[in-house]
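for the recovery benchmark. tokens below, seq after
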């Protein structure tokens, strides 16, 4: 149910830090009961601008950007190597809200990736070793056998960070907040980064 007392995108929002608004909206989404509020659509493109899209999980955000993790040999990673620009979309239907984010992407340090990797469940760590993400797989049985092989290899030992796995951070240069209205006169507020500051403008729905 959409709360009637929540903050809206009024004119004072245009003078705020967009990351502060994101933090508030993400908190409300997390408390709303929506499944996986951290799920976000990640769009990448090849060097010649052929796009692809998939859902990944946000694993942290701050003034430096939005973080996510993946196999560095996956399709999205290869596209980011060619074209280090991407967009994110959060859509929380229960709140009738959407956030679009565009920016430049770079890899996190090995230490940052390792620190996060250690927080993953053990089976997820083993799965990262077992999966050659995005590559052709002739049967699920082969994947399970690889998983079991790494289970034995890392038995009773700490599982190291795979050399082909790690994180990215997207530094936003545009952030757009969208809030739906029953009369279709939706609120849209766009923030544009100008150096170290942000400018904003309201958009027609």
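predicted aa per position
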């Amino acid at each position: 149910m959409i709360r009637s007392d929540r903050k809206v995108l009024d004119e004072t929002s245009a003078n705020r830090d967009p990351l502060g608004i994101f933090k508030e909206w993400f908190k409300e989404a997390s408390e709303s009961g929506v499944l996986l509020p951290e799920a976000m659509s990640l769009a990448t493109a090849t060097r010649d601008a052929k796009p692809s899209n998939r859902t990944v999980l946000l694993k942290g955000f701050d003034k430096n950007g939005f973080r996510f993790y993946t196999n560095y040999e996956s399709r999205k990673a290869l596209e980011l190597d060619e074209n280090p620009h991407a967009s994110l979309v959060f859509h929380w239907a229960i709140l009738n809200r959407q956030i679009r984010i565009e920016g430049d992407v770079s890899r996190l340090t090995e230490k940052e990736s390792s620190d996060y990797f250690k927080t993953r469940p053990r089976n997820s760590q083993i799965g990262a070793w077992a999966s050659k993400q995005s590559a052709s797989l002739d049967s699920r049985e082969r994947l399970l056998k690889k998983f079991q092989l790494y289970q034995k290899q890392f038995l009773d030992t700490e599982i190291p960070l795979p050399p082909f796995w790690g994180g990215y951070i997207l530094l936003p240069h545009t952030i757009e907040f969208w809030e739906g209205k029953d009369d279709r006169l939706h609120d849209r507020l766009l923030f544009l980064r100008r150096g170290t500051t942000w400018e904003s403008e309201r958009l027609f729905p």
